[in-house]
Design brief:
By secondary structure, this protein is an alpha/beta fold. It is 37% helix and 16% strand. The protein is built from 15 helices and 15 strands. InterPro entries: LRR_dom_sf (IPR032675).
Length: 416
């Protein structure tokens, strides 16, 4: 009826139920976890943060709309609006700090919403001048967001102020936060060695995107690190020190992502290979059959289709349960793959996934192609092997896999 209080028209559900609904609606795959190695390796496929930031915009718009629905939802929406703070510039950091200060001094609030922040990310773009006021603003954000567990600079542009002393002072503040469990850093080795030693004892997950490394420093141990993503080579191309890899010890590492530029014949890889359960190597051409022999604990491997074709099936670890094949299927010898599944697959294998590019234009599927695909699918069904596929980076990073039907696989084989 006209004049009714709009809040009274809302279903009288307990706040705990609405919080669970909002939590589900605002989930961003891979953004908040510190200990899920599989989710983090999938997250690493989003090299430029495009899918991540698109989801963040969607979540922000959803919760801004929810906050306007009724008075009861407004404080609950704040929890999810502040969960992931994305700082786009130094001036933006000042605005966020001002907002937190105003909310902290609001007599109607018992505490600042900064307590809900789990992830803080610097996403500076282009040529950027970092000022003393920006450092002060970030220090204020850190002091009012005491539950931050994830800090990231992974998607900043290469023109970010890595050589600015003010910016390095800011990064030094990050190193003082012992509650950080996941760190994502893009930069030079001066930045890495400003932050990493202070946090090495506490980190559970680490993402590094080295722009270059001038020299190898003394060895650094990460006693609790279980997931490591190295998204580029450790040294300058043609630098002889590249062969050694990063000077790190990771005694409990279980999940590793290496870019195609990261040599797997490095001392670092040989040290951790035996303990790995999840591995993502893309199209890394340096992964030789001899190195496959030391992957004695591996249960899931993500690699390019081209690399998979170049490796003898006999070289795959016998412990392997899942194979994720990344890339287009055009020209892929699916018939030979079916024979391999039937006769020479690892005994523990239960899942084959095809991580396909976003759907392109397809040609007509021939009867011969359909017969080959049907043969492959039937072989897998008889051996209780699930065949799944995902298309595009959105599905890859969220691990949204669909059953691979004969029609879907046949269409993928003739994509252009």
């Amino acid at each position: 009826m006209a004049g009714d209080d709009p809040d009274r028209s809302q279903p009288k559900l307990p706040p705990e139920i609405w919080l669970k609904v909002f939590d589900h609606a605002t989930d961003i795959p891979g953004a908040y976890t510190c200990d899920d190695g599989q989710a983090l390796l999938a997250y690493a496929a989003d090299q430029h943060g495009i899918a991540l930031h698109s989801r963040h915009r969607g979540v922000t718009n959803t919760m801004l709309s929810a906050s306007l629905v009724c008075k009861a939802w407004t404080p609950m929406a704040a929890e999810f609006l502040f969960r992931y703070l994305l700082v786009k510039s130094g001036d933006h950091a000042v605005k966020i700090a001002t907002t937190l200060d105003n909310l902290a001094n609001n007599p109607l609030r018992s505490s600042t919403p900064g307590r809900f922040t789990h992830r803080l990310e610097l996403f500076l773009e282009g040529v950027h001048q970092w000022k003393t006021s920006h450092t002060a603003a970030l220090a204020f954000i850190l002091s009012h967001c005491l539950n931050i567990r994830i800090f990231s600079t992974a998607f900043m542009s290469v023109d970010a102020p890595y050589d600015s002393q003010q910016f390095m002072n800011t990064m030094r503040l990050v190193g003082l936060r012992s509650n950080i469990r996941r760190l994502e850093l893009k930069g030079n080795d001066a930045l890495f060695w400003e932050v990493l030693p202070a946090l090495a004892l506490h980190l559970e997950s680490l993402v590094l995107i080295p722009l270059y490394s001038r020299r190898t420093r003394s060895e650094l141990t990460f006693p609790n690190l279980r997931t490591f993503v190295l998204s580029d080579r450790w040294a300058i191309p043609l630098d002889s020190s590249a062969i050694s890899g990063p000077p790190f010890r990771m005694p409990v590492l279980r999940a590793l992502h290496l870019s195609p530029n990261s040599p797997t014949d490095s001392d670092f890889f040989r040290t951790v290979a035996d303990q790995l359960e999840y591995l993502s190597t893309g199209g890394n051409a340096s992964l030789t059959p001899a190195l496959c022999d030391i992957l004695n604990s591996l249960v899931e491997w993500t690699l390019s289709i081209a690399l998979f074709v170049s490796i003898s099936p006999a070289d795959l670890p016998s412990t392997l349960r899942a194979i994720n094949l990344d890339g287009g299927l055009t020209g892929f010898p699916l018939g030979q793959f079916a024979v391999w599944v039937a006769k020479r697959r690892p005994p523990a294998l239960t899942t084959i996934r095809f991580l396909l590019p976003f759907k392109r234009r397809s040609c007509d599927v021939t009867q011969g192609t359909l017969r080959v695909v049907k043969f492959f699918v039937e072989i897998c069904m008889k051996r209780d092997i699930q065949v799944e596929l995902a298309r595009g980076v959105d599905q890859h990073t969220s691990r949204s896999y669909a059953p691979a039907t004969i029609e879907l696989l046949a269409a993928a084989l003739v994509d252009h």
